[in-house]
Model the fold of this input.
Amino acid sequence: QLGYVCRNIDRAMETFAERCGVHKWGTMEGPMPQLGRVAVQKVALAFRGDIQIELIQPQLDIPSIYGNAIPSDEVSVRIHHLGYICDDEAEWDRVHAHHAKLGNPKVAGMDLDMVRYCYFDTFVDMGHFTEYFMPGPDMLAFWATLPRFP
Done:
């Protein structure tokens, strides 16, 4: 997954349509419980080949892990994270141990019914965060409905 952050998700979707040929998205909007507040974020998802593209418009007036990547204008998007699927608990445990060994702190994450996910701070070495997730059946069903582009 390529995770991008934007100020205006509608304009970001237009940018991807104009520049990358991705012109349809599956969208979600909801609370950001990892912040412990009632913050709301908007998310748009689509596939380009086998790669999922995620656009995130965080609530801008509340500090979050997305703040370092928010572009200054309404048109641009900025890379925030690369995301990887973990197939099982053993792989989940391996990536946690790997990042602990490297000294990359876990900076966010949730165990939800639809998905289990976490972000590790790999920004200093990689220029982005690294996300791992284990999608549940409902999330996989949602992903199956997402637009796909060659």
Notes: Residues 40 and 133 are 20 Å apart (CA to CA). The mean pLDDT is 92. The longest helix spans residues 89-102.
